[in-house]
Structure formats: structure tokens, C-alpha cells
């Protein structure tokens, strides 16, 4: 980490969406049928935003590097980003008339599914000089890095450490070309269990990045490093919506990793943030608790450790 001291300024780069979240769904829709959700909420989404919001609640100075969604969803997104104290000075507005970036998230009792529309560039151009004020950059999905590989060189020139989430992408998950090299250039790689298993089938190993963190949902999380394998379990919580839980985990993990905490403590904080996220809708609704939490508060909410 930078100068072996606490790093407090983080840039989160990636696509920004407006999430239409359907919850209390009795079954997943199938072709030719219709099902009805118990509720619908609109939230700002995308891995970069949710990780940034988590870090902001934990006391970090966070900024977004994203393209803001087009109308009519731009105001919803900008207002929620502002409420989470995230700086958008490096963001750009979507081109006039472009399709808005939207994710439809459908959450049932034991399942969830997403349908997304992505348009244009994930984020505007940025220079190494503009990155210099940050200590760390988190890239919200592997596709964003694949589309913008030069961001790693610029981040290294500015002295930043780098973390990378995976994100499921059918095209990327069927073709290994160049993926291992991209992953290897980061410091921390954070796939979920399904993504990790698919990458392994494609021949990408657990030691491709210096540190690989696998998010296993109700089974906690696992770290793979040159020191070996560490697994930290989690405890059960009532799940309202699992959207963004992995991104909230990222924020919790990174917050401790940047403080050079022991790896098991990093995993514990990731588990806690992920468990909080699923207890509300949209990935950030329950995170206000983080701003004034203690170990006793976590225990009283039955949040995983």
C-alpha cells in the first residue's frame, strides 16, 4: 500500500446503472408467461458505485470514474450518488439521446437474475496526473478493464494499488484470450464463486493475481495468496435483496486491506458489509449502519463475521 500508511482516497471505476429491482417474486419469468413482483424499487447500481458507497460509509474519501446514465434516469442516479458523499468530478454525462444504462434485477426466494443494457464507454478518458491524488483504484468489472486496459499503466505511474471485481459476462466467460494477463496486473482480484469456478474451467488459476478473494455468499469468503488458502465463514441473515452484496463485500474488504490489516480481518469486514447489503434493497439501503457501527452493533444486528 502507498507509503505503508493508511490509504484514505479511493477511485472506483466502472459502469453506472439505474437498477430496477423487483423483489418478492414467486418465480423467475419464463418465455410466454407472466409473473408479478411484490415490490419494485429504483436505485443507482453498478459495482463501482456500490463499492464506493460502502467505502464512503467506512470513512474513506471516494470518487467515481463513470459515465452518468442518460435521461430519464440521470437525476435518480445523481441524487443517490450525492447522498452517499461520492465525488463525481471525473465522471462524464452520457451522450444526448443515448440509451440509458439500466439493469432489471429480479429477486426470488432462492434465486436472482439480471438483464442489463450497457451503452458507450464505461468511463471518460483520464490521465496519470488526474489519478495522482488517489491511493487506490477499484475497477468494478473485468469487462471494463478489458475495454480500458491502459488504466492499469496510468494507475501504476501514479503509484496506486489496484483491485478488480469480475462480473459475469457471457462473452468473456467463454474466451480466455488475454484475461489472465489483465488479472495478473492487479493486486487484488475479487470474483464470486460462480465466476471463479468458470475461470478455473478456462484455465485461469487462483494465483493469477497476487491475491484472489472468492465471495461465496452464505458460505463466507476465501482468500488465495502465496501464503496459501484462508476461509472465513459467515452467519445467516434474512435476505431481502442480494443485488450488490458482492460489491459491498469489496468495499469492506478493501477498507481493511488498505490499512494493512491481517487477511482474516479483511475477509471478516467484507463478510459483514455483504451481509448488511442483503438486508435492504439495492445494495446500499442498509449501509448507513456502517457510518456509526461498532463490534457490538454488528452483533446486535446478527451480521456475519
Please give a structural write-up.
This protein is of the alpha/beta class and 305 residues long. It has a single domain (7-16, 45-98, 122-294), classed as UDP-N-acetylmuramoyl-L-alanine:D-glutamate ligase (3-Layer(aba) Sandwich), CATH 3.40.1190. Helix content is 29%, strand content 23%. It is built from ten helices and 14 strands. The protein has helices at 47-57, 74-83, 128-131, 142-147, 150-157, 179-184, 193-201, 245-257, 263-277, 295-300, and strands spanning 9-13, 17-25, 39-45, 61-65, 67-68, 92-93, 102-108, 112-117, 136-139, 161-165, 188-190, 211-215, 221-225, 228-232. The strands form three sheets. Strands 4-1-9-10-11-12-13-14 form an eight-stranded mixed sheet, with helices on both faces. A four-stranded mixed sheet has the order 3-2-7-8. The protein has a two-stranded parallel ribbon with strand order 5-6. The radius of gyration is 18 Å and the shape is globular. The two termini are 25 Å apart. The model is unreliable at 1-6, 292-296 and 298-305 (pLDDT under 50).
Amino acid at each position: 500500500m502507498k507509503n505503508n500508511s493508511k490509504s484514505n482516497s479511493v477511485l472506483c471505476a466502472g459502469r453506472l446503472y439505474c437498477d430496477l429491482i423487483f423483489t418478492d417474486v414467486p418465480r423467475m419469468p419464463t418465455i410466454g408467461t407472466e409473473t408479478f413482483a411484490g415490490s419494485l424499487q429504483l436505485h443507482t447500481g453498478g459495482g463501482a458505485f456500490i463499492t464506493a458507497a460502502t467505502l464512503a460509509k467506512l470513512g474513506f474519501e471516494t470518487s467515481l470514474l463513470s459515465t452518468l446514465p442518460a435521461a430519464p434516469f440521470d437525476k435518480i442516479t445523481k441524487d443517490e450518488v450525492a447522498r452517499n458523499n461520492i465525488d463525481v468530478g471525473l465522471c462524464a454525462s452520457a451522450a444526448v439521446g443515448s440509451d440509458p444504462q439500466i439493469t432489471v434485477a429480479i429477486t426470488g426466494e432462492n434465486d436472482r437474475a439480471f438483464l442489463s443494457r450497457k451503452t458507450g464507454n464505461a468511463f471518460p478518458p483520464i490521465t496519470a496526473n488526474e489519478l495522482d491524488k488517489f491511493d487506490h483504484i477499484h475497477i468494478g468489472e473485468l469487462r471494463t478493464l478489458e475495454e480500458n486496459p491502459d488504466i492499469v499503466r496510468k494507475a501504476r505511474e501514479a503509484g496506486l494499488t489496484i483491485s478488480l471485481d469480475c462480473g459475469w459476462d457471457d462473452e468473456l466467460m467463454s474466451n480466455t484470450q488475454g484475461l489472465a494477463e489483465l488479472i495478473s496486473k492487479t493486486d487484488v482480484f475479487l470474483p464470486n464463486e460462480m465466476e471463479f469456478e468458470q475461470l478455473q474451467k478456462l484455465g485461469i488459476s487462483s494465483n493469477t493475481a497476487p491475491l484472489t478473494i472468492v465471495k461465496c455468499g452464505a458460505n463466507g469468503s476465501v482468500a488465495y495468496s502465496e501464503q496459501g488458502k484462508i476461509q472465513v465463514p459467515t452467519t445467516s441473515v434474512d435476505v431481502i435483496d442480494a443485488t450488490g452484496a458482492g460489491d459491498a463485500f469489496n468495499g469492506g474488504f478493501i477498507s481493511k486491506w488498505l490499512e494493512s490489516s491481517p487477511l482474516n480481518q479483511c475477509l471478516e469486514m467484507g463478510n459483514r458489509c455483504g451481509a448488511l447489503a442483503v438486508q435492504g434493497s439495492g445494495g446500499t439501503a442498509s449501509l448507513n449502519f456502517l457510518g456509526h457501527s461498532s463490534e457490538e452493533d454488528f452483533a446486535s444486528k446478527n451480521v456475519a463475521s
